[in-house]
């Protein structure tokens, strides 16, 4: 019967050393790595979402459309013709050569045709209005037989005699101011500003060619507050032209 030799016995020295038999070791289990899913970005709270939405809405509301003050203008030529010589219809394409006054009209405003009766009774010569708010308007009246301007308060009272709306505006006004100005040619203009409870009015009055010209710019208070720069431009654009 064959004898089994341990390999250690073959390669050992002649002097044998007692060997210590180690207990069989259990192989260590591989370390388990826990897979942690990547964290999600923090979700905004309901309060912050509402705040952001409100801020965006406020930005949209505060971003107002361009004011009419930035709009372009068309130059109107007025002839101040008498009622007997007034046709009452048509544009102003042929009026330039015979024009006696000019003023700017905001783009988009419409012309209201003045009848002969109206021209003959209160002297209205031309009128334009904002189609979005018809009471926001500019118009011009004239009266013949005036060689020079009377005192400022007399002129304003005389204008109100033929304009019921102007009478009411003056009667209920918070303030009425008047100043005298001269243009580059030395022509005198009376400038009135009437701040009423529900409306605002700018009036410019001058005399030329034996006539008294009065240019009005009227607007309800909300429109005045929104368009005051544009309305002041229109008011200041009025002047008489031609030889005197």
Present the secondary structure layout:
Blueprint: H1 7-10, H2 46-62, E1 73-78, E2 101-106, E3 110-111, H3 116-122, E4 124-130, E5 133-144, H4 152-161, H5 164-171, E6 173-182, E7 188-196, E8 199-208, E9 211-220, H6 221-237, E10 239-240
Helix pairs in contact: 4-5
Q: Can you offer a commentary on this structure?
A:
The protein is built from six helices and ten strands. Helix 4 crosses helix 5. The N terminus is likely disordered. It has 244 residues and is an alpha+beta fold. The chain has a seven-stranded antiparallel beta sheet. 26% of the residues lie in helices and 30% in strands. A hairpin with a 2-residue loop joins strand 7 and strand 8.
Which descriptor suits the 3D outline?
globular
Structural class: alpha+beta
Classify the oligomer: single chain
Order of helices and strands: HHEEEHEEHHEEEEHE
Distance between the terminal alpha carbons, to the nearest Å? 154 Å
**How can the largest sheet be summarized?**
7 strands, antiparallel
Reading side by side through the largest sheet, how are the strands ordered?
3-4-5-9-8-7-6
Radius of gyration: 45 Å
Helix content: 25-40%
- How much is the average pLDDT? 78
β-strand number: 10
What share of residues are in beta strands? 25-35%
Stretches with pLDDT under 50, minimum 5 residues: 1-21, 31-35, 56-69, 88-93
Total helices: the number is 6
């Amino acid at each position: 019967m064959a004898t089994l030799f341990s390999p250690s016995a073959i390669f050992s020295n002649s002097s044998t050393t007692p060997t210590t038999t180690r207990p069989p070791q259990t192989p260590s289990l591989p370390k388990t790595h826990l897979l942690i899913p990547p964290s999600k970005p923090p979700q905004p709270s309901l309060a912050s979402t509402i705040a952001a939405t409100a801020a965006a809405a406020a930005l949209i509301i505060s971003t107002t459309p361009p004011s009419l003050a930035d709009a372009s203008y068309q130059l109107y030529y007025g002839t101040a013709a008498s009622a007997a010589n007034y046709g009452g219809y048509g544009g102003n394409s042929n009026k330039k050569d015979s024009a006696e006054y000019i003023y700017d009209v905001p783009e988009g405003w419409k012309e209201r045709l003045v009848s002969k009766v109206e021209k003959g009774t209160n002297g209205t010569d031309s009128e334009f209005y904002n189609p979005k708010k018809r009471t926001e308007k500019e118009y011009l009246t004239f009266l013949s037989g005036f060689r020079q301007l009377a005192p400022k308060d007399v002129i304003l009272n005389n204008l109100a005699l033929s304009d019921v709306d102007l009478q009411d505006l003056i009667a209920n006004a918070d303030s009425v101011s008047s100043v005298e100005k001269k243009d580059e040619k030395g022509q005198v203009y009376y400038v009135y500003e009437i701040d009423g409870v529900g409306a605002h009015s700018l009036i410019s009055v001058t005399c030329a060619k034996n006539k008294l010209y009065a240019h009005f710019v009227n607007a309800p208070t909300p429109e005045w507050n929104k368009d005051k720069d544009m309305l002041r431009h229109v008011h200041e654009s009025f002047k008489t032209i031609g030889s005197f």
